[in-house]
Amino acid sequence: MVDVRRADGGERAPGTGGLPEGRYGASGAGRDARADRKLRIVGWVLAVLSLAGLGWIGADYVGGQPVSGRVIKFKVVSGRTVEVHLEVHKDADATGVCTLRTRAADGGEVGRKDVTVADRAEQVDRIVTVRTTRRATSAELVGCEPRETEGH
Predict the structure, then answer these.
(1) Chain centre distance of CA 60
(2) Is-contact 56 117, C-beta < 8 A?
(3) N or C: where does the chain have the smaller number of CB atoms within 10 Å of the terminal CB?
(4) pLDDT tens per residue across span 2-38
(5) Is residue 75 very low, low, confident or very high in pLDDT (cuts 50, 70, 90)?
(6) Residue 64, φ and ψ in degrees, nearest 5
(7) CA neighbours within 13 Å on the CB side: how many for 76?
(8) Tens of pLDDT, residues 77-126
(9) Angle at CA of residue 48, ends 46 and 52, nearest 5°
(10) pTM surpassing 0.70?
(11) Smallest Cα–Cα separation from 123: which of 100, 144, 142?
(12) What residues contact 108, with CB distance under 8 A and at least 6 apart?
C-alpha cells in the first residue's frame, strides 16, 4: 500500500484525490452560487411581472364593465310570483338593462324579466316582481348591459 499523505502533515498531496486543480476552470461551488443567484433574480422578476399583469387584467375587467349588478336576495311570494332584490352599479348618467331569470326545482326556467335601470345614481337598489309559469325555487341575474339612450 502506498502512503499518499504529504510528509509535513497528513493532508493528501495534490493530484492524489478529487479533481486536478485548474483543469476544469473555476471551482464548481462559486459557479453554482452565481447561477442560483441569477435564477432567483429571474424568478422574482417573473413573479412581480405576473402579479402586475393579473392586477391590470382584474382592474380592467372590473372597471371596464359600465353596468353590473347582483341579486341580494329573493323571495317566492306565491306559485306564480317571485320578488327579487336587485342591486345595480353604473355611472350616474348611464342607463342599463339587467335580465333576471327564475328557475323551478327541476332546473327549468319558469320566468324571465328585463329590468331597465335609468335612475341618476351610481348604485340602484330595486325590488322587482317576476311572474312565473309555475312555482320557482330560485332567482338569478343573467347579466347587465348598458343601454344607449336615444339622442346619444
Answers:
(1) 12
(2) no
(3) N
(4) 555 555 555 555 555 666 666 665 555 567 788 888 9
(5) very high
(6) -85, -5
(7) 17
(8) 999 999 999 999 998 888 999 999 999 999 999 999 999 999 999 999 99
(9) 115
(10) no
(11) 144
(12) none
How crowded is residue 115: how many other Cβ atoms within 10 Å of its Cβ? Answer: 19
- Which three cell numbers, joined as nine digits, stand for 141? 341575474
Q: How far separated are the first and last CA of the chain, in Å rounded?
A: 101
Give CA–CA dist 21/39, Å, rounded. Answer: 28
CA distances from 105 to 38, 71, 76, 86, 102 (A): 59, 19, 12, 22, 10
Given a contact cutoff of 8 angstroms between Cβ atoms, the answer to whether 95 and 117 are in contact is yes
- pLDDT at position 127 over 70: yes
Burial class (CB in 10 A: 0-12, 13-18, 19+), 117: buried
CA 15 from chain centre, in angstroms, equals 59
Cell of 85: 332584490
The C-alpha cell that represents 127 in the structure block: 325590488
